[in-house]
């Protein structure tokens, strides 16, 4: 077992836990290593009482720890679990034993919900006045049940600093990789993503998975055009140019792009330019104006505006934070 100085992730498995989401933290954080191969995290899985936990599948899991280890957590992760949302929602989502266990979490520790475990955080009042997300299929109900929470149903996760929420299922992977990137930089996160055979980040948001009418059958898609555009972020890329590359009319391309990605071509391009700028800030010493030009964002002032809107920090502050963590 790693030395206690290592950041401790505690996964709290509740009755009816979804087994896939329960294992995401150990797969992502348990794979992360420093320059000398040292583990960067210790991941412990617990139940409220230390006894085996029934999962949402046809098996139970035995855990090594009881809820008392929550008191030692640097980050607490709560995976989703089977629980109806009815008249007794407060008791369903935050029974007394769970409420007592959550109160053990040290001040300053992070708490993360995956999928509908956001109901636990909201019932505990941890999301009051905050922006949060949950599975898109429950977003409307969640907003009605917790009007004091600003629900964003379109994103894969929301980083609220100390309190973080992920959308459904695999969005838990996205959030864990984001935390790993936040803690140790993109080099470590990208290596873990490669080892786990998942993308370091996913294009679009949760909106691309919301049920909608199936688009017209066509042999063409926008993936090749998106790949083409990624090679040309430093220059202007007009919508008509994208549509021409895809062999579609502007109207058809725009509709199909939104169906596939969950956002407009312009929104997607801006997001890719910002992500490219972030990577350049992390791994190069290029001046801000040069990075802005190479990412297709024009001037340093434009980059500063876009970065502030996207993640709330200035380029130099972002570089200072993440360059120091690249292994």
From TrEMBL:
Pfam families according to UniProt: DJ-1_PfpI (PF01965), HTH_18 (PF12833)
Key word Cell wall biogenesis/degradation present: no
PROSITE patterns membership: HTH_ARAC_FAMILY_2
Annotated SMART domains: HTH_ARAC
Signal peptide range in chain numbering: none
Keywords of this entry: Transcription, Transcription regulation
GO molecular function: DNA-binding transcription factor activity; sequence-specific DNA binding
Record field: transmembrane: none
Domain HTH araC/xylS-type: 223-321
Stored PANTHER family: ARAC-FAMILY TRANSCRIPTIONAL REGULATOR, HTH-TYPE TRANSCRIPTIONAL REGULATOR RV1931C
Protein name according to UniProt: AraC family transcriptional regulator
